[in-house]
Design goal:
Strand order of the largest sheet of chain A: 4-3-5-6
Largest sheet of chain A: 4 strands, parallel
Number of helices of chain A: 11
Number of strands of chain B: 0
CATH superfamily of chain B: ABC transporter involved in vitamin B12 uptake, BtuC
Order of helices and strands of chain A: HEEEHEHEHEHHEHEHEHEHH
Low-confidence stretches of chain A: 1-11, 28-36
Helix content of chain A: 25-40%
Oligomer: heterodimer
Order of helices and strands of chain B: HHHHHHHHHHHHHH
Largest sheet of chain B: none
Radius of gyration of chain A: 20 Å
Shape of chain A: globular
Distance between the termini of chain A: 31 Å
CATH topology of chain B: ABC transporter involved in vitamin B12 uptake, BtuC
Number of helices of chain B: 14
CATH topology of the largest domain in chain A: Rossmann fold
Radius of gyration of chain B: 20 Å
Strand content of chain A: 5-15%
CATH class of the largest domain in chain A: Alpha Beta
Number of strands of chain A: 10
Number of domains of chain A: 2
Structural class of chain A: alpha/beta
Shape of chain B: globular
Mean pLDDT of chain A: 86
CATH superfamily of the largest domain in chain A: Nitrogenase molybdenum iron protein domain
CATH architecture of chain B: Orthogonal Bundle
Helix content of chain B: over 70%
CATH class of chain B: Mainly Alpha
Structural class of chain B: mainly alpha
CATH architecture of the largest domain in chain A: 3-Layer(aba) Sandwich
Low-confidence stretches of chain B: none
Distance between the termini of chain B: 30 Å
Largest interface: A-B, 43 and 37 residues
Chain lengths: 312, 335
């Protein structure tokens, strides 16, 4: 789960962050300029538009989001991952790696103690404060923030480049592209299904304009009824969801989410989607994590929405 | 009750009740989806027995989504304002308020425990929220009583201590919660009326009405208590019993509303204050007036929350705090 809305930070949390900044600012003042990253380096521009200086050879990486852990393993650099969050449960080998907190509350001390050269973060984890602190320790922070499938492919290629597995990353992306194209070809002639994406029920959250899931639904032969709503994961009006008369509802559930979000929100019980039995549960880990398995989610969604397009 | 007071009470309550009814009707015409006004009014007038030309979806929006939410807003607003008025009279402090004293946080901790341990059993939420509110109330009360009695400053300080302590408990529990719940939970903590299932609505309304009646019946004793506990005792008020009744009833009101909607702040501060300002400090008037006014206030605030950035939504607690916090500062300056 990585889509913590920007709106849900409480004031209290902000105070905690401010306290953390102040303490760390004091701390780092007494502990100037450790130079973990020395020697030749290269610059890669991340999704926050920052030019990040990365050491030429990277063999110690910390990932602060489950999708990034999956990408690191998928490009064959799992053995260079030295830290991960408690949400990073895939592939199973990842669980053997040291935990450094979760995506929302990563723990700076163990991260620094692991002496990584690069820390991979997703903006969903809101790590502006962390970024400054880690950079103060000469640890490169690389931000990923994909808004569509192309952006996910770019994350994979860039992480491949960072860990020195550019070729494997390119091969992986090529395979994922082929699978994506196959899906798009299969559903090309089908009329798009009007879909509502219920990211969570109480309260109701959906996928908005800036979410990679909105792009994924389009590729799967669907039109998201909330494709024009600003933001990536907006809290959505129950009545607008019903008034949109979705033909189908996607329920991301299961996986690491367990039984959460397994039922359609009360307001949509009378929607055409529910009345026609077109509610599709899809493994949340395949939809909420912008990594290689997002294409699994694409295939599962397309198969659910257009079974006849795949000869069933 | 003498005749003048009785008449004043009846007039004030009748006016406010009429305004409340009007607000329920008008606000149910507003929402992220436009509904035909005439047909909606006709359907509302028929109490949902006739669709009056509304489509099935429009009918569902009006009666299954909007109206239950508005009724919940009314119950929550009425509960919180009444509880606030009760605490203010009993503690003789205009700043006593469930949210600021940490009582809402107590109820929130109770609700969280219900969510974590009895996730699907909905009726455990108000019960544990009530228990949490009660514990927090007694904690604040004990902390606030010094040798010189409970001064306003001491009470607010006690409230701050209880609030921050319980906030830490909340943060601790959220860290233990799984990731998906945290997101909906943080929204709920700010006070949100959208996610509640309709199962709790009747219970919340019944508790609100019962609580308001119970406190109104003790209004005369509360009036005497505002003179000071000793004077009240000399005038024949069973101080200990009244105190327990007010604590129990107010905790029940806060508990049921927090279980349904999270911590909607400042309602218990703004509304009773305005009631006293416009109708005088006689609790026989100000308590029922605060109940009706609170319902009105939260209905309007929630309508703003659900329409201002439609089809997206804000938590109603953000709107009530936006109005309440400046008023709180104004009150502190006057106190």
């Amino acid at each position: 789960m990585i889509y913590y809305g920007r709106s849900v930070r409480t004031l209290r949390n902000q105070f905690v962050w401010i306290a953390v900044v102040v303490c760390l600012a004091l701390f780092s003042a007494c502990n100037p300029g450790r130079t973990a990253n020395v020697g030749p380096s290269r610059e890669i521009t991340d999704d926050a538009g920052r030019r990040v200086s990365i050491p030429a050879k990277v063999d110690r990486v910390v990932s602060l989001a489950p999708n990034l852990t999956e990408i690191v393993f998928a490009v064959g650099a799992g053995n260079r991952l030295v830290g991960r969050t408690s949400y990073c449960d895939y592939p199973p080998e990842a669980k053997a790696i040291a935990e450094v907190g979760d995506t929302i509350h990563p723990n700076l001390e163990p991260i620094i103690a692991l002496k990584p050269q690069v820390v991979l973060v997703s903006t969903a984890s809101q790590l502006e404060v962390f970024t400054q602190q880690l950079q103060g320790q000469n640890i490169a922070v690389f931000v990923t923030d994909p808004h569509d499938l192309e952006g996910v492919f770019r994350s994979i290629e860039q992480i491949g480049e960072i860990v020195g597995e550019k070729d494997r990353a390119n091969q992986l992306v090529q395979k994922l592209r082929e699978r994506t194209n196959a899906v798009e070809q299969a559903v090309k002639q089908k009329p798009p299904v009007r879909v509502f994406y219920q990211a969570s029920g109480e309260p109701l959250y959906t996928a908005g304009r800036d979410s990679f899931v909105t792009d994924l639904m389009r590729r799967a032969g669907a039109t998201s009824v909330t494709a024009g709503v600003p933001g990536a994961w907006p809290k959505y009006s129950n009545e607008s969801a019903l008034a949109a008369r979705p033909e189908a509802i996607i329920l991301p559930t299961g996986g690491s989410m367990g039984a959460a979000n397994a039922t359609v929100v009360e307001a949509l019980r009378q929607s055409p989607a529910v009345l026609n039995g077109r509610v599709y549960k899809i493994n949340d880990d395949h939809l909420a994590r912008p990594g290689p398995r997002l294409v699994d989610g694409l295939e599962e969604m397309a198969h659910a929405l257009h079974p006849d397009a795949f000869g069933r | 009750m003498n005749r003048v007071t009785l008449r004043k009470t009846i007039v004030a309550c009748a006016v406010l009740a009429a305004a409340l009814l009007l607000a329920i009707v008008l606000m149910s015409l507003l929402g992220s989806e436009p509904l035909p006004v005439r047909a909606s009014l006709c359907a509302l007038a028929s109490f949902g027995t006739s669709p009056c030309g509304l489509t099935q979806d429009q009918f569902a929006i009006l009666f299954q989504i909007r109206l239950p939410r508005i009724l919940l807003a009314a119950a929550v607003g009425g509960s919180l304002a009444t509880a606030g008025a009760g605490y203010q009279a009993l503690l003789r402090n205009p700043l006593a308020e469930p949210y600021l004293l940490g009582i809402s946080n107590g109820a929130a901790v109770g609700t969280m425990i219900a969510l974590v341990f009895f996730g699907t059993i909905e009726w455990t939420r108000p019960i544990l929220a009530f228990s949490g509110a009660l514990v927090a109330t007694f904690a604040v009360y004990r902390l606030a009583r010094g040798r010189a009695g409970a001064t306003p400053e001491r009470l607010i300080l006690a409230g701050v201590i209880v609030t921050t302590f319980l906030s830490s408990v909340i943060v601790f529990v959220t860290v233990l919660m799984d990731a998906t719940r945290i997101r909906s939970f943080t929204f709920w903590l700010l006070g949100d009326l959208s996610g509640t299932s309709k199962a709790l609505l009747p219970l919340t309304i019944v508790i609100t009405i019962a609580g308001v009646l119970a406190l109104t019946l003790h209004a005369r004793s509360l009036n005497l208590l505002m003179l000071g506990e000793r004077d009240a005792f000399d005038l024949g008020v069973e101080v200990g019993r009244v105190r327990i009744v007010v604590f129990l009833v107010a905790s029940l009101l806060v508990g049921s509303s927090v279980a349904a909607s999270g911590s909607v702040g400042y309602v218990g501060l703004v509304v009773p204050h305005l009631a006293r300002l416009s109708l005088g400090s006689d609790n026989r008037i100000s308590i029922p007036a605060a109940a009706l006014g609170g319902a009105l206030f939260v209905i309007v605030a929630d309508t703003v929350a659900r329409t201002i950035i439609a089809p997206r939504e804000l938590p109603v607690g953000a709107i009530t705090a936006l109005i309440g916090a400046p008023l709180f500062i104004y009150l502190l300056k006057r106190a």
